[in-house]
Amino acid sequence: MSTALVTQPEVSSERRSRVASRVANLKPSGIRRFFDLVLGRPEILSLGVGEPDYSTPWAIREQGIFSLEKGHTSYTSNQGYLPFRQSIARWLEREMGVSYNPETEILVTVGVSEALDLAFRAMLEAEDEVLIPEPCFVSYPALVELAGGVPVSVPTHSLTGFVPTLEDLERRCSPRTRAILFNFPGNPTGATIEPSAMRKLADWIIRKDLILLSDEIYSPLTYEGKHTSFASLPGLKDRTILLHGLSKAWAMTGWRIGYAAGPSDILAAMTKIHQYQIMCAGITGQMAGMEALDHGDEDCRRMVEDYARRRRFIVKSLNEMGLPCHLPGGAFYAFPSIRESGLSSEEFALRLLEEQDVAVVPGDAFGDSGEGHVRCSYATSLEVISQAMGRMKRFVDSL
Ligand SMILES: Cc1ncc(COP(=O)(O)O)c(C=O)c1O
């Protein structure tokens, strides 16, 4: 067919890119790039994936199936199915010692991922800054940028247990700083934080009049002592958006259920965006989620015990092969230093993959301060971890 017959755009002098610069300028996720190398190679032992190797516990799956059998296939209210929000409120009261009104202070989202996006978009004006301790979950800086804000990274180190110091925070805080984000237990470091350190950070946040986003998605996977929520500290509840969800501790990544709990004004603003963009989280996941929160403690405990065994094994193995690794207090990641190898994180991970068929994630995928480390997920069987550690030792010995 002749092109002469096809309508042509009226030519403007300079053709605009079809992709918004805000998106074009986003750095691609370092994790994704690495996973692409692993795709379609079944011989590889992967310590790369940040999701449980378990299926969702049967009783929870059964409630999802049962709800479908009963014909629960509709939308729920924008904020989420009220009985599920009530389950969330009960769980938060029981586990975190914080009470929330399920009518006005809880919003059910499509994973913590959506809750983070909503929170940034609901509270940031253009160029507002958000302090983000690094190394961190890859989505945080990108979502701040997409919301028009400016992510300001605060490097942390293994020497201070990957907890930011007040001096470092003070140095990066400016009149434009609007919020700060904490993630304990943390991805990728597994870091947890002592209540005394939490109180110091809490006082500083109040003095600076900041909003705190506290991503506590890994809280049930706390191996030493009991998790303390930032929202439970004096003076913080009214300025904290607590983010949590079912993906990790209940092995429910694919159900896509998370939630935000916090002050009603911010929650109402988040709900406004959520109702236009998502309408509501999927009903089946919310139905199953009630079972997880009301009756899932025992299943959760069994998985945590298993992760704890793997944690001890992987940390011991890494230290014995000469890759210093702190004992992660929570989540399911070990974050050893690979500096002694003389390789960069990326070189280490690429060569380990090519020479020994073991996948780990280079630490710099989680921000510049992750350089010198790799992330090894132990959300995989002890057998795979054990074989991977054998191969990793061979690799380190060969350097
Ligand atoms: C710290 C952290 N927050 C949030 C998420 C996203 O979780 P969700 O599946 O609830 O979106 C992840 C997933 O890896 C994570 O590691």
> Which strand-content bin applies to the residues?
5-15%
Measure the end-to-end span: 61 Å
Name the bound molecules.
Answer: pyridoxal-5'-phosphate
Tell me the count of domains.
2
Which class of secondary structure composition applies to the elements? alpha/beta
The radius of gyration computed from the alpha-carbon positions, rounded to a whole number of angstroms, is 22 Å
Question: What is the H level of CATH, i.e. the homologous superfamily of the largest domain?
Answer: Type I PLP-dependent aspartate aminotransferase-like (Major domain)
- The dominant shape is globular
Poorly predicted regions: none
CATH architecture of the largest domain: 3-Layer(aba) Sandwich
| Overall mean confidence score, pLDDT | 95
The total of beta strands comes to: 12
Number of H- or I-type helical stretches: 13
Level-1 CATH class name of the largest domain: Alpha Beta
Order of helices and strands: HHEHHEHEHEHEHEEEHHHEHEEEH
Main pleated sheet:
7 strands, mixed
Describe this structure in words.
The protein has helices at residues 21-24, 30-38, 58-69, 82-96, 111-123, 139-146, 166-172, 195-207, 264-277, 283-295, 297-320, 345-356, 382-398, and strands at residues 45-46, 106-109, 129-134, 150-155, 177-182, 211-215, 240-245, 258-261, 333-334, 358-359, 361-362, 374-377. The protein is an alpha/beta fold. The protein folds into two domains: 21-56 and 298-398, Aspartate Aminotransferase, domain 1; 58-296, Aspartate Aminotransferase, domain 2, CATH 3.40.640. The strands form three sheets. Strands 2-8-7-6-5-3-4 form a seven-stranded mixed β-sheet, sandwiched between helices. It has a three-stranded antiparallel β-sheet with strand order 9-12-11. β5, α8 and β6 (211-215) form a beta-alpha-beta unit. It starts with 20 loop residues before the first helix and ends with a helix. It binds pyridoxal-5'-phosphate. Residues 50, 111-113, 137, 183, 187, 215, 217, 245, 247, 253, 258 line the site of pyridoxal-5'-phosphate.
